[in-house]
Specification:
160 residues; alpha+beta; four-stranded mixed sheet; binds zinc ion; IrrE_HExxH
Length: 160
Amino acid sequence: MSSIPSDVQGRIADLLNTAPVDVAQVATRLGLTIYGQPLAERVSGVLVKDPSYGTPSGFVILVDHGESYVRQRFTAAHEIGHYVLHRDRIGDRVEDNYLLRSAGLSSAIEAQANRFAADLLMPFPLVNQLISDGITTVSDLARALQVSEIAMGIRLGHPT
Ligand SMILES: [Zn+2]
């Protein structure tokens, strides 16, 4: 069962069926914009409510553009997870460190955001489609979905 709420899945269904999942387009559909930029030391991602950006939701996502592309994608997906699942409890700002942990949220909440990110970037129906198309190794699947091999291995249930 996906951790992405069914109403959200309905709004991004086409994006969840196409590898690699277009995270920027997912954000746009949900009224968010993702900006890659320098962040404070040891900060990987920020979800912040700031009307000055003019997004439909009032929130934007900032990711550390110095990190690898696949990591930036996972961080952005994690922050989308906080927006979708936790925006009623985060106030105006959540700031995740390089472990994707934030000062104000429990590890259970962070695990939910990570699960959401995995469900967004590596939807099981899409993974199964790729496998039936003949893309079967962890590294090839990771490349097709633009995720790290570590994330892909975890998704497939391989020990790390
Ligand atoms: Zn987080």
